[in-house]
Write the structure tokens for this entry.
Amino acid sequence: MMKLTISKAIEVLQQTPKTLHAFLYNLSDDWIFCDEGSETWNAYDIVGHLIHGEKTDWMQRLDIILKQGDNNTFEPFDRFAQFENSKGKSLHNLLGEFSELRSQNLEQLKALNITESQFSLKAIHPELGEVTLGQLLATWVTHDLGHIAQIARVMAKQYKQDVGPWEAYISILHK
Amino acid sequence: MMKLTISKAIEVLQQTPKTLHAFLYNLSDDWIFCDEGSETWNAYDIVGHLIHGEKTDWMQRLDIILKQGDNNTFEPFDRFAQFENSKGKSLHNLLGEFSELRSQNLEQLKALNITESQFSLKAIHPELGEVTLGQLLATWVTHDLGHIAQIARVMAKQYKQDVGPWEAYISILHK
């Protein structure tokens, strides 16, 4: 296990827009809009979801924690906002929007000069109860990584039948 | 499920070196060399493993299938070759090497002008028995995607404790 630090967390948060751009930018719609079945997300949905997080979740919740005010309960996060917000936008639009928002948020995060002693500051998550600033930061990072893995998994599953007996070796096809 | 085609497969095979570069190039050693415990791989090991596949696996096996000779059994693939072959090389070296090898292999693949009627050509895998050209191609693609997801998972797990109650929402931490 690595020790959670602001600088190591930022390393991961900084790579995500570039990684998604390299991953998705030149793929055709078949790859971008494939999913794992009904009620599951495709890569386009996931990029929209990440955008909504940049707009309404991570930095807003960080601010609530840092203020330590009387009302320190987070707004619930809308996991389905992207279905409305992404309408009419191309994936290329979304990748650009995500990159810009992430970049602005990381500038703000750095400017806050958060110290590790602040990692234990608390607020209330509407479903999970008491959470800390350090937990929010670690979740931001793992949330990015989870969605990168999800996109890879969704795409891999398109060839689940096509790999034939090799399916036994490709564990992502069973996840 | 998408239909397997050479052109759609190449789209994915082309993005992998760029995606890994964007993902890993600016990360510090803590991220590159972290793993999931004993006998598990870190990002550095995985890039070395992908290089060994470019050198000894995918195109070599494709050639064996296309030749349809008397001895059409694949050489076993060495899943541990990277531990020797990567010695003394930086991750940046490895990313460059992978990118170059992949690029050469895709040039060769395109030059073969494989048609879908050839997808059913067969050879013998030393453990799995009879496999087809189409299955090999689909496996090359899903193998890349599986390792992208693996790197994301290995990194995410470093913060498994740090996310606190959010662990319930981040399914990659349970894989």
